[in-house]
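The methods section describes the discrete structure representation at length, but only in general terms. Each protein is reduced to its one-letter sequence and a matching series of backbone shape codes. I believe one specimen quoted in the main text would settle the matter. An entry of this sort, consisting of the sequence and the corresponding backbone structure tokens, reads as follows.
***
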Amino acid sequence: MVVQLQDANGIPAEARTQADVIVSFSNGTINTPLITLHIPKGFDLAYATLPITQGTSGTFTVISNGLASASVKLDATNVPITLNLGAAKSTIFSNQTTPLYYSVQSFGLPVSGATLAWSATDGSISPSTSTTNSGGSASAVFTPAGPGVATITVSASSPLIGTKNSTTTIVVIAYPKAKASTLLGTILGNMFYLGGIIAGVAAAVVVVLLVVRRRRRSSVSDEDSFDIGPAPGEGTAFDLRVVFQT
């Protein structure tokens, strides 16, 4: 706030002696409702910094001995701010992670350089702090600690928006673990493969038997033989066959 000494025509005028000025605010929402300023001799103004928050409205009144008072109205309107916080997946398994995305805009324009503090219940976020880029956005990764509902919170701070918090939730489902297999379950589960192996062995045995039998028949057909007649002086004849197998 600047208080200036002016003449009747609104032209800045230097103070002939130090001018003590008292400033008041109508609704009293400022921490110091009465402010005293001093315009030094030879100067035409004095200034002060006031802790005014968004939405503050009222009238400043300036008085000084021997000078006409003046007033000005203040209306600190709220800055339109758009905050967006979301996750790539709203439901994940307990052994998974998911990216998080955040963006902030003011008057429809991206807010860059905002400081972000990320936090989560039932899990962790990496990185835990970051700043928005030129597009007003930032990202992080959430890692759950276990099944449940995790709450993600981002606290954004910037001179333009002040401090704003955004939250979202992620449902974390327990990852199903494989049951320990029993001997019977293992056997039954492998019956298909065991059946195939047995059938293959049986087929191989049949083939070997057929080959051996064929070779035996072939050997018998190739026999060399001759007959021996009855011995001299013997009335009974018989056949004697000598067989040579090849």
